[in-house]
Amino acid sequence: MLARDWIGLRVEVMESPNPCEVGLKGVVVDETMNTLRIETERGVKVVAKMHRVFAVEIDGRRYRVDGRLIAFRPEERIMKGMMLVNRIKG
């Protein structure tokens, strides 16, 4: 899940230093190196990746993801993830 595009995925902020962000949920509509833009019922919210924990839904399953693990440019994160998968496969 780290080595994939997050645009279109349903996410929820589980932990954040900003208590107003906890429980924020919606669909990722854009991503930068440091932020996720999430379409919520109240409009688009921009949430930093660092110091947050997200719940993300993929194929009907929920995963907890530490924002530090995705705090890269999306294309760099995807490439690093693909390289890691290739190393594991041998």
Automatic annotation (TrEMBL):
A single MF term (Gene Ontology): ribonuclease P activity
InterPro entries membership: RNase_P/MRP_Rpp29_sf, RNP1, Rof/RNase_P-like, Rpp29/RNP1
Family per record: Belongs to the eukaryotic/archaeal RNase P protein component 1 family.
EC number: 3.1.26.5
Location(s) in or outside the cell: Cytoplasm
Protein name listed in UniProt: Ribonuclease P protein component 1
Leading EC class: hydrolase
Quaternary structure (record): Consists of a catalytic RNA component and at least 4-5 protein subunits.
Bilayer-crossing regions: none
Catalyzed reactions: Endonucleolytic cleavage of RNA, removing 5'-extranucleotides from tRNA precursor
One Pfam family linked to the record: RNase_P-MRP_p29
Role this protein plays: Part of ribonuclease P, a protein complex that generates mature tRNA molecules by cleaving their 5'-ends.
Keyword line: Cytoplasm, Endonuclease, Hydrolase, Nuclease, tRNA processing
GO biological process, one term: tRNA 5'-leader removal
Cellular-component GO terms for this entry: cytoplasm; ribonuclease P complex
